[in-house]
Amino acid sequence: GRRREIVRFLVYSDCNALLGMFIKQMDVVLLGYLCNPTEAGYYKLAKSFASTISNLTNPLQSVIYPKMSYIWGAGRVDDFHQMIYKLALGLGLPFAIIVLFILLSVPRLILSFLGESYVPMSLATQLLLTVTGLHLIGFWIKPFYLSTGQMRLWTMFPLIGAVLSIPGY
Question: Which of 64, 72, 103, 129 has the fewest beta carbons under 10 Å from its own?
Answer without folding.
Answer: 103
